[in-house]
Design goal:
Elements lengths: L4 H5 L4 H6 L1 E3 L2 E2 L4 H10 L4 E6 L2 E11 L18 E10 L7 H14 L6 E6 L4 H5 L4 E10 L2 E9 L4 H4 L5
Parallel strand pairs: 5-6
Antiparallel strand pairs: 1-2, 1-5, 3-4, 4-5, 6-8, 7-8
């Protein structure tokens, strides 16, 4: 059974498993090679939720070093960056509509607050997802420079520095 996301990604059946995941907007937007790419470069910026040894939800992130996202942010990891770019929050289809996405995002943000080099988190999402991310503390920054075909996105950010009250007694 898989021990962590990186171990899962190198398993022969992981491509099949990945296809059973959907993001909050639909299909998992990362391809298997992209998941492996980020898990290899920056496994500490990914988080998985396992129940009885089964992966039920995950977040894939990487570091970024510019104020706003660009097309390069979709594939690059900037090791000296101070901004975490969330590429995907995905929940296995049988575990959807149970609040697992919100809980995993909360836990991920708490974890990032323990990393001294991270000062904020950014993501891009479709318009209809803005309320979902606002509930986790993200604020819309306006239209994202990145587009995918006809799809446009809103860029959102959430500060993780200056929240000492959230770190107290957190085990960091």
């Amino acid at each position: 059974m898989c021990m962590d996301l990186l171990t899962c990604a190198i398993q022969p059946g992981f491509a099949r498993v990945l296809r059973t995941f959907i993001s909050v907007s639909g299909e998992c937007p990362l391809h298997l090679d992209e998941v492996r790419h980020f898990l290899t470069l920056c496994p500490e910026l990914s988080l998985g939720w396992f129940e009885e040894g089964r992966l039920v939800a995950f977040i894939i992130g990487s570091l970024w070093d510019q104020e706003r996202l660009t097309t390069d942010a979709l594939t690059l990891h900037k090791p000296h960056g101070s901004i975490v770019h969330i590429h995907v929050l995905a929940v296995h289809r049988t575990f959807r509509q149970q609040g697992k996405g919100s809980i995993l995002m909360w836990r991920y943000l708490q974890y990032l607050r323990c990393l001294p080099y991270v000062r904020r988190v950014v993501l891009m999402c479709e318009d209809f997802l803005v309320p979902f991310y606002q509930k986790s503390g993200f604020k819309a920054q306006g239209p994202c420079e990145v587009t995918v075909g006809p799809l446009t996105f809103i860029e959102m950010q959430c500060p993780v520095r200056g929240h000492a009250f959230m770190r107290r007694n957190s085990g960091c």
